[in-house]
Amino acid sequence: MATASEHVDVLIVGAGLSGIDAAYHLQRAFPARTYAILEMREDLGGTWDLFRYPGIRSDSDMFTLGYRFKPWLGEKAIADGDSILAYVRDTAVENGIDEHIRYRHKVVRAEWSSADNRWTVTVDHGGETVVMTANFLFSCSGYYRYDEGYTPDFAGTERFPGPIIHPQHWPGRVEVEGKRVVVIGSGATAVTLGPALVEQGAHVTMLQRSPSYIISMPARDGFADRARKFLPARTAYALARAKNVGLSTLMYQLSQRYPKRMRAWIRGWQERWLPKGYDIDTHFTPSYKPWDQRLCLSPNGDLFRAIRKGQLELVTDRIDTFTENGLRLESGRELDADIIITATGLNLVPFGGVELVVDSRKVHLPETMSYKAMMLSDVPNFAFVIGYTNASWTLKADLVCEYVVRLLRHMDAHGYVRATPVRDPSVGTAPFLNFEPGYVLRALDILPKQGDRAPWKLHMNYLRDLPKLRYGKIDDPAMRFDRARAS
């Protein structure tokens, strides 16, 4: 084994929203502790630096997607990607976090030694191997592959002469004015791309295999705008954040408890936004209940306005094959296209694909159980951030970071060197994410499990997690703490 080049107290993997969040909490709580952030790409920002397609924006309001400790001061509640990236970069620079980031450092393997009570991390840095050690490993790398989006195996793609583009690999400037563009997909990316391409002068057809729930939301938050006029920025931000957390939680709970009523409400809203007589049953009524998959947002109703103006057509059908002119559908209809965009989703990969090893035994993730949705059974001194599927990612990231700080303080206070969640054999198992989009269903067999009761059960509820993670007891019967080295 190569000799370690450096040791740090905490090693953070990923310099996106979560990684910067983790670094802020860590250095604020422990000024004397050493840490480093390993980022596989050439810049920070994660998702917001990677995706460059037209119209890229948040699908959560910025008062909840923003950090708890740094007010969002932008005018728009649904912000564009460049503004979000600038916000993340400003946070890193203002707090000196950028000085701790090692770019083009891809973590390949992390091996825990109970004899040494530390992680040995193998890193690929531009083709060279770098080895680092750390007392605690914190994965903030998200859950999807950055180097590869998901594209189904479409028939006849070789026949189509024009560009076929996945939004995750947008090739810089694409000239679309006057072009016929077909966007395949019905999720947040497609709902964002369609209106943005219309604004650039394209003739857009959105082709979906099945509908999604899509609702309009104001691009600006009127409550936040009014609060800013009379209150300090931090107070106004906190109030807007609390208001939006409450509203989003209420909408999710109503959707789960009264799905028929919520479906009717959503349909009523859409009837007001769409042309009279529009076929909502075919194009806007999914087979699943509201919030079984994430609701898509249309800022200021941009998608609905484009449909009303005849600038965007929504087609619900299945693809038979690509052709020399575009696409032939199973119904027999032909869609002519100059450019085809496959907004068909993501490929999930837990913890950036890092191979985890504990005392020479490889960790097989489906055999592990997630503890409080942030640690793994029988894996010491390791935490991760996976955000909410029904709310802003950062709401969960903030709570996880605060919990990790509390955990480290507890270990310091009692002289512990190791914290390991230990699974009770009587705890039943369930899929890690109770969520139905394709990218989740395709990855269930590579993800950890969750349990049927606390602290192993995953709750997609910020208000429920808040008291437990921010204030709850650290000394949990399911957590084993060790002072001495393993014999």
UniProtKB/TrEMBL annotation:
<dbReference type="GO" id="GO:0004499">
    <property type="term" value="F:N,N-dimethylaniline monooxygenase activity"/>
</dbReference>
<comment type="similarity">
    <text>Belongs to the FAD-binding monooxygenase family.</text>
</comment>
<dbReference type="GO" id="GO:0050660">
    <property type="term" value="F:flavin adenine dinucleotide binding"/>
</dbReference>
<protein>
    <submittedName>
        <fullName>NAD(P)-binding protein</fullName>
    </submittedName>
</protein>
<keyword id="KW-0503">Monooxygenase</keyword>
<dbReference type="InterPro" id="IPR020946">
    <property type="entry name" value="Flavin_mOase-like"/>
</dbReference>
<keyword id="KW-0521">NADP</keyword>
<dbReference type="InterPro" id="IPR036188">
    <property type="entry name" value="FAD/NAD-bd_sf"/>
</dbReference>
<keyword id="KW-0285">Flavoprotein</keyword>
<dbReference type="Pfam" id="PF13450">
    <property type="entry name" value="NAD_binding_8"/>
</dbReference>
<dbReference type="InterPro" id="IPR051820">
    <property type="entry name" value="FAD-binding_MO"/>
</dbReference>
<keyword id="KW-0274">FAD</keyword>
<keyword id="KW-0560">Oxidoreductase</keyword>
<dbReference type="Pfam" id="PF00743">
    <property type="entry name" value="FMO-like"/>
</dbReference>
<dbReference type="GO" id="GO:0050661">
    <property type="term" value="F:NADP binding"/>
</dbReference>
